[in-house]
UniProtKB/TrEMBL annotation:
Subcellular location: Membrane
UniProt entry keywords in alphabetical sequence: Membrane, Repeat, Transmembrane, Transport
Secretion signal span: none
Cited InterPro entries: MCP, MCP_dom_sf, MCP_transmembrane
Solcar repeats: 65-156, 172-258, 267-357
Official protein name in the record: Mitochondrial carrier protein
SUPFAM superfamilies: Mitochondrial carrier
Superkingdom classification of source: Eukaryota
Keyword check for Signal: no
Length: 366
């Protein structure tokens, strides 16, 4: 009897040690409800079940996936989103650059239905996806670098500030997300910019096809405008993409954290879609004028045409406002809204979904 008692005490002691180690490792969620109460003839017996270390989840540590998984998830998310919203994206670009083709004539108010009907009548259904091939080629590396850089910058900032787990305040959390998002956007845009410029020129073409594809466009621009021609509009692009991505990530992650804290049982896919859409509206509203200017600067001199804006970024802003008024800086904002609501939502939703496919245990950490 004494030996059985000693053996039972030993098992209980070992179980207690394992439980302490699990709690110390941040596994209190996995241990919740781990005690089963089974009633036998002699009374109640407590059985402690402690999950093995490899299945324990650190509740205080932000979920991370491997480098390759981050790159794949980000790339697929960006490419899929752009393909889904390509028709609205092309309409936005066509509206943005209308002021370059009027020859001084007064512009009519933009009409989505009218422009879509013209594209369909003159160019066919496939024209709505004109430039989508280079968009995918651009978005795969761009989104991969963007999401990967954001995760890396955010972790670096958290280490510098000594933030562990979820102990950061709302203000500090938003600040790190803004800085990490801005840095990620600038990094991704700088490394993939020539493809972005080619995409704009291909999408802006209507019936007159000067560029016949990605390779032809890259070679033609390099030959006619020099290597610097591949980086036209880089300045306003970096000025716009930094705040755009910063606002996107900051609002998305802040809203998501607040939503999950209040309603933890909500579907992660729905949360990502809703928060991503709201983040996209806010970021597009704040940065649309600089995006319009960068599109026009990207098209300067395309196809051997004469330059229209010759006084740099500030001069371009001033010239557009003089010729088209303040509304000219927001020409195309309506299809942009129609595009960005599903586009950004799909990006974040697909990114979260791909993370869960590539590393299933991240379902438990969101």
């Amino acid at each position: 009897m004494q030996s059985k008692t000693a053996e039972a005490e030993g098992r209980l002691q070992n179980a207690g040690d394992r439980e302490i180690r699990a709690v110390g490792g941040g596994a209190h969620r996995a241990l919740a409800g781990a005690i089963d109460h089974t009633v036998g003839a002699s009374g109640t017996k407590n059985v402690v079940r402690v999950p093995p270390p490899e299945t324990q989840v650190d509740a205080g540590r932000p979920s991370q996936i491997g480098t390759v998984s981050q790159l794949v998830a980000g790339g697929v998310a960006g490419a899929f989103s752009k393909t889904c919203t390509a028709p609205l994206a092309r309409l936005t670009i066509l509206f943005q650059v209308q002021g370059m083709n009027t020859g001084g004539a007064k512009l009519s108010p933009p009409s989505i239905l009218k422009e879509a009907s013209r594209v369909l009548r003159e160019e066919g259904v496939r024209a709505f996806w004109k430039g989508n091939g280079v968009t995918i080629v651009h978005r795969l590396p761009y989104s991969s670098i963007n999401f990967f850089a954001y995760e890396q910058y955010k972790m670096t900032l958290r280490r510098i500030l000594g933030i562990e787990g979820n102990k950061e305040s709302l203000g500090v959390g938003m600040g790190t997300r803004l800085l990490a998002g801005g840095g990620a956007g600038i990094t991704a845009a700088s490394l993939t910019y020539p493809l972005d410029l080619v995409r704009t020129r291909l999408a802006a073409q209507t019936k007159d096809m000067y560029y016949r594809g990605i390779t032809h466009a890259l070679l033609t621009i390099s030959r006619e405008e020099g290597l610097r021609g591949l980086y036209k509009g880089l300045g306003p692009t970096l000025m716009g993409v930094g705040p755009n991505i910063a606002i996107n990530f900051c609002i998305y992650e802040t809203l998501k954290a607040m939503w999950v804290a209040q309603r933890p049982d909500t579907s992660p896919i729905f949360v990502s879609l809703a928060c991503g859409s709201l983040a996209g509206i806010c970021s597009s509203s704040a940065t649309f004028p600089i995006d319009l200017v960068r599109r026009r600067m990207q098209l300067e001199g395309a196809g051997g045409r004469a330059l229209i804006y010759k006084r740099g970024l500030a001069g371009t802003f001033k010239q557009i406002m003089q010729e088209e008024g303040l509304f000219g800086l927001y020409r195309g904002i309506l299809p942009e809204y129609y595009k960005v609501i599903p586009s950004v939502g799909i990006v974040f939703m697909t990114y979260e979904f791909m993370k869960r496919i590539l590393q299933p245990q991240s379902w438990n950490a969101s």
